[in-house]
Amino acid sequence: MESLNLREKYINFFESKGHKQIPSAPVVPENDPSVLFNTAGMQPLVPYLLGEPHPYGKRLCDYQKCMRTNDLDEVGDVTHHTFFEMLGNWSLGDYFKKESITWSFEFLTKVLEIPLERLAVTVFKGNDIVSPDNESASIWKELGINEKRIKYLGEDDNWWPNMESTGPCGPDTEIFYFRSEDEIPEEFDTSDDRWVEIWNNVFMQYNHNEDGTFTELPQKNVDTGMGVERVTALLEGQTDNYTSSIWYDIIKTIEKVANLQYVGHEKEMRIIADHIRSAVFISADPAGIKPSNTDQGYILRRLIRRAIRYAKKLDIDINSDWEQQIALTIIEKNKKYYKELEENRDVVLEVLKTEKVKFNRTLEKGLKEFEKIIGKVNGKVLDKDNAFRLYDTFGFPIELTVELAKEMGIEVDVNGFKEKFKAHQELSRAGAKEKFKGGLASTGEVETQYHTATHLLNAALKVVVGPQVHQKGSNITHERMRFDFSCDHKLTDEEKQKAQDLVNEWIDKGYDVTKEEMKKEDAIKSGAECMFIERYPDIVTVYKIGDVSSELCGGPHVSNTSQIPHIKIKKEEAVSAGVRRIKAVFAE
Ligand code: SER
Predict the structure, then answer these.
(1) Which residue in 59, 80, 452, 529 has a CA-CA distance of 20 to 30 Å to 196?
(2) CATH number, domain at 75?
(3) 201 Cα nearest atom in ligand 1
């Protein structure tokens, strides 16, 4: 299939308009522990939208790895994906509405050659903070968009991300494409789902503060986002995203390993394709996520196990190398855009295989449990609690329980199970929501203090344990900091005490925190600490704390260590072979 090459076209176009391409940030955020995954292209750019100068300048563009897991159960239809790529271009206090809208229009109509009559737009109708966006509307009109195709909508539709999340935000204008072969109505009806949103241009000019107020940002930014999967499918004339060039080869491989056609098995194949693709990207990410029962590791585990369950439905021989074949297709297709896929190929394949073996073992245990339970069934019905236990503890899909019970002439209380399942799901959704809430820019004062404290802890561990200690990750919430570092032994009580004392001593000394932009190679030569060297652009920001610490970092930080409360190490534990984790809080 001829591919649209949307990414190349997009980047070339914005480079021709003075933008610099920035590399995709990891899908697991490096310095923003308030979210599990990047959910939008702008997320790694929050410090720069807030005013920090970006080493690449004021006009940026990229394609960014994103993950949204809140509607995992929707995957299986024609549009939903967990992992996706977002194209974006940004003005960091440089151009504004006129250029942004004009270039979007030019890209769509000239580069992608979308006929004008297939386009429609929405603009913000105004609220207490900002007046109706007549400016955007008149720019669209001048470009040739008919007035009947320009609709004014309110906060629910044209304010990004929404009125609740804290962080940078603002009114937006959204661009829609008429995807049907039907006659195109002259008037744009926003409730007609043949009009599909393809691009979102946000005029990020406000910060939503934690106290609920909105203040103007020091600069007026533009943040745009376009989903690669959706737009590729639309422009290739596919109503099912999974038949576009983004997915085509992956589906072909699944057809081959299943020895079945896509037609008739769409749902199963879409789920397998989506989930394995997400698992490949998560496990290839530099953060080194492995399947586990918490955070990103849990999502990874669920994705792999769900893919296996659907593979079983297609009667794929689970013990064959089916998942490796699918993963290899995904790696081949994408490695030119994301070189970590090639670099971490063996890790990815191992993660999939190991988790598959583990899940198979769990299933075996589940079968034993099933036999025990079924032996005790009173009458003819397996109750909802046991059915749920088989699902929850043994990963037994309800369909499997029903099937096995049926062979023994026993029914399952499926409705009861579904109720329990729903209650459970709502609970875990609520949990996930908590995690994502306020996630965009949780760079409040406390988080900033903790962030600087992690730099001090990193430096202190180098003194106490040795210079071979390096940061392997960090995670900060309002309540605590977590710091992962390379170290071949469990820290002794004395080492912990010494590291804590040293950090607190440096806090008391009141060192200035300064930052400097320099060439990456000079930064490395100067001995600055750095976690993922290949992730940084050629010009980097180095934060120095007195003369005790020097690290490549995007900030933000306090300006003097005296602004940080004393820390207290609460826990030190192993994360994986050779990696330890410290949890610390601010002392009362
Ligand atoms: N941040 C906006 C979005 O995710 C535009 O990039 O849609």
Answers:
(1) 59
(2) 3.30.930.10
(3) 5
Residues with CB under 6 A from ligand 1: 40-42, 88, 160, 200, 202, 223-225
Which amino acid, 240? D
Closest CA to 63 of 304, 232, 277, 238: 232
DSSP, collapsed to helix, strand or coil, labels residue 158 as: helix
At 542-560, the pLDDT tens digits run 899 999 999 888 778 888 8
Residue whose pair of structure tokens reads 């939208």 in the numeric block:
49
Is the same domain home to 149 and 236? yes
**Which H or E run contains 92?**
strand 83-92
Q: Which atom of ligand 1 is nearest to the CA of 40?
A: 4
pLDDT in tens, 420-470: 888 876 665 554 444 433 333 456 678 888 889 999 999 999 999 998 898
Residues 48/92, Cβ–Cβ less than 8 Å: yes
The answer for residues whose C-beta is within 8 angstroms of residue 568's C-beta and 6 or more apart is: 500, 584, 585, 586, 587
Give the mutation target among 100, 162, 165, 200 for probing the ligand 1 site: most ligand atoms within 8 A of CB. 200
Of 182, 213, 242, at which residue does a domain stop? 242
Asked if residue 249 belongs to a domain, the reply is no
pTM of the prediction? Answer: 0.71
Q: Report CA(160)–ligand 1 centroid distance (Å).
A: 7
| pLDDT for the residue 434 | 44
Q: How many CA atoms lie within 13 A of 567 on its CB side?
A: 39
Q: Which domain holds residue 381?
A: 376-440
Residue 471 predicted with pLDDT over 50: yes
pLDDT of amino acid 555: 75
**Dihedrals phi, psi of 350, to nearest 5 degrees:** -65, -45
Going by CA atoms, what residue is nearest to atom 6 of ligand 1?
225
Question: Do residues 409 and 519 both lie within one domain?
Answer: no
Q: At what angle do helices 97-106 and 134-143 cross, to 10 degrees?
A: 30
Rounded average pLDDT over 167-184:
96
Please choose from 14, 157, 202, 204 the residue to mutate so as to test ligand 1's pocket, defined by most ligand atoms within 8 A of CB. 202
Number of domains in the chain: 4
Residue type for 507, please?
A: I
Report yes or no: 307 and 299 within 8 Å, Cβ to Cβ. Answer: no
Q: What is the DSSP letter of 111?
A: I
- For residue 533, pLDDT over 70 is answered with no
C-alpha–C-alpha distance, residues 41 and 24, integer Å:
8
Do 135 and 69 have their domain in common?
Answer: yes
- Same domain for 64 and 187, yes or no, is yes
Measured between alpha carbons, how far is residue 83 from residues 75, 240, 257, 282, 330 in Å? Answer: 11, 16, 22, 9, 12
